[in-house]
Records
---
Amino acid sequence: MTSSEMEQIRRIFPDNNVIFKLNPDKPASNAKLKSAEWQIILQIDGKKKLQDIIDTLTLSEDEILPLVFNLCQKELLVFDQSVSVAPPQNYVDISFFNQLADTLVNYIGPVASYVINDVLLELNEQQDQFLKEKVPLLIETLSQEIVDEAKRVKFQKEMLGIIKNL
Amino acid sequence: MSTDISKWLQDIVDIKGVTGVFVVSNRGQIVAHAGVKIETGKIGRIADRILRIEGAFRRKGQSLKEIDIIASNYRIIGMMREYFTIFTLCNSTDALPLIRITLNVTIAHLLEDKKFNKFITKSGTSKTQIINRAVFNKDETKLISKLQR
């Protein structure tokens, strides 16, 4: 499994607090499953968290996540999205990127929003799911686009004020 | 140390993973600090070592504004300017981009602070003067010759 596939799975199960239930409309008894998938099915009781299952089974997180994901895709497992979704405060509000573009445009001109998108692509990130803790890295990378050192620091100063209020 | 300088340094120490920050003159004296305390002698020795590294680069016509070293069980980020160096002691560098941005902004604040500038220029010699007078030992001279121009 590639890291980007793993990241995709992590977007669906951002943490190990998600609780799975067996899908009553699609019993697993009729399905053809690998032994590891059966082990997982046997652990599902509607109470155990994903972390509890990882702790019980002798499988690593990297092994178990794709299996759980497959079981969900086969509709054998269901889960409460409200429990699994990462706390929204971890992501920056999309309006932050407007604020960032408005600030950066004063330093590098109208290409600002294109440069932001380029850097996001480079960092393998997207605006709607951008973690707050990654904002300084984004600012630092964008700063490198400002040739004049004094202006670069001024931009960082402005952005530091914004980071503190995120 | 003015309240403003204390506040700027405290902003650095408040970052996760940072344990202390020191503004050190070119004579190795601690001008201001926040967070964990380190004896002047120890920080002076680190400052001396970094100054010699900076000197080696300058001899080759290269500038060195930032250095990242491990000493005294800390990862130390040194940001050098003509009359002073800021040392940031870290036990984790998870927030390195935020540390660097905050350091850049702090240095900008310090350079704009008239009282600080007056004090630091009076209490320390400029790096250019020190490095021009510096005598490097055999090993250092060998290393300098290996630095790419």
Note: Residues 149-164 of chain A form the longest helix (16 residues).
---
Amino acid sequence: MRVRTRLAVGAGTIAGHASRLAGRGAGDQISGRVMLGVDPELIAKLARDQRVVLVSATNGKTTTTRLIAAALEAEGEPVVSNVTGANLTSGVVSALARARGPGFAVLEVDERVLPRVYDALRPELLVLGNLSRDQLDRFGEVHVLSDRWRALLAANPEQVVVANASDPPVVWAAAPARTTWLELGTGWTGDSATCPQCGALLGWNDRGFACPNCGFCTPETAHRLVGNHLELDGATIPLRIALPGRWNVDNAALAIVAATRLGVRADDAALAVAAVESVAGRMATYTVPDGRTVRVLLAKNPAGWLEVLRYVQDVDTAVVLAVNAHVADGKDPSWLWDVPYELLAGHAVAAAGERALDVAVRLRYAGIDCLVERDVMRAVARIDGPSVTVIASYTQFYGLSRRLARASRAARPASEPERPA
Amino acid sequence: MTGTGRGTGTGRGTESTLRVGLVYPELLGTYGDRGNALVLVERARWRGFDAELVEVAAGDPIPDSLDVYLFGGGEDDPQTMAASGMRASANAVRRAIDGGAVVLAVCAGFQLIGTGYVDAGGEVIEGIGLVDARTVAGAPRLIGEVIVEPEPSTGLPTITGFENHGGRTKLGPGVRPLGRVTRGGGNGIGAVDGALAPNIVATYLHGPVLPRNPALADLLLTWVTGGPLEPLPSVLEEALRAERLAEARLTGWRARARDLRLERG
Ligand SMILES: [Zn+2]
């Protein structure tokens, strides 16, 4: 390491420590920012000895990253990873700076940041999950992102990619590269009405999508997720995962395929993935002083909310919806009206967060009475139910995890929430 | 209402079902536009009307049998697709309006019921010309809370919403805006937002606009049913309105403190 690089890492680490002490979160984001200010070429230098795996998607990238890292760690490989969800350039640098020698760097990258860090990181493998609407007021259109990814891979056609074959914007993006396709089945189609290639209306069927105008369609692949079985390279691998919800089965399948492209045996990857119980505090379960368990789920956009609501629908639990509209959440919570909160019928429901009133009005028109209590901890305490599930937007989620962990220390933790690395 | 009761121009009869049409939700539904439809359907039902939400799928012709036509917001490609479908069905929509149907057009929908939209590349997307309003893509994008003081003739209270668009919309001579913008950008020209025409309301406001402004929803329902409506309790809606209006009216250091708070992760 050259002197300048070492100085940069040193300054950044101190800033990150100070930020953690000040209670401003995991510190990864801010310490990375400081480092970049010192040495703009840091990423390339830090990544030089690492086998880099990049994971990008609108939803599930943190979990998929964690699962890939778990599969590699189970093989005894040294792995650095930005598991706290710090996925901007700064978070990537912080993670790389923790490497103590050659090994794997499994990094989730914000879908908008991916083209900016790609050249510096030269990834051995790129894992692309899905693209849907997220934080619209800041970033605009899904098609624009998809086009940017495609331009990137068209310029790097030798790039090895594992990609979701069932998501039109991802297929459009990954088609120019050396891509292993995994068919995950049709999920959220709300942002894929038109063909990325020609703009015509996409047709959908059981097999996937097909454009009647230009022929752009779901790519042929022998790798697919069928229920809880992954068909991969001619074998069928049962997936039994500890993480809740259908969306995590998708994440697990993608992670296992990715791990096999890095040399891990599929069965071993499946075992390692199955053992992961919580990712960066997401999906962690806490026990609050009144003895009830509280599970916290993060939902960042309509596609994510739909998945989480489908899961909660069948669980006997009270539900607290905690929504903010900070920049990181998207400043316009209009998306509340695209989410089928009608699925919560029969549950006790509370609206919390800075935008509790927007949630409450939405629920009124879904025919669901709710308790309005802005403070999410008070909402948890006040709502009746055998257990409580909090579904939180991004900025609600992080504050809440800290507060619940604190409250949980008074009681016996149901499962120890993961510490930020 | 469909069937025999239509055609008077003031109200569409008394029997049958109020049909709230959500036009091309796959293309024009980017900003929670379904919410506007839900609010109209539910507020009609709460008053004892039969009401149903009718989705007009992208690619299908728009029927002339709907009572409310909702044209929502959309991205560039979808907006172009929507425009061609709307042009093919423009006569059906016009017939319906002449028969007493009402139109709420938001953002891209507003641009498309106008005479045309010139996108950032200079390409012209022809609208259906329900109102004389022409839009040119501009910069910067207008994003944030908006307050509109509506035209007094509407009898509406202050309107609250959230905008996110690059359009600059010029109203033709004699076209009335929905109101005067006191916070935010609206049409981006002349400190006004939207447009008003007989049985037509157009605006740039999301939120969506009807959940945040139940009086506007009720105005549309009054037009389409042809009579005054009983008031509904709106405690939650009023609380939300008050909160949004207060937030949008912050100035000086208070506004900066709010912005800093919202930037925080
Ligand atoms: Zn096509």
Note: Chain B has one domain: 18-264.
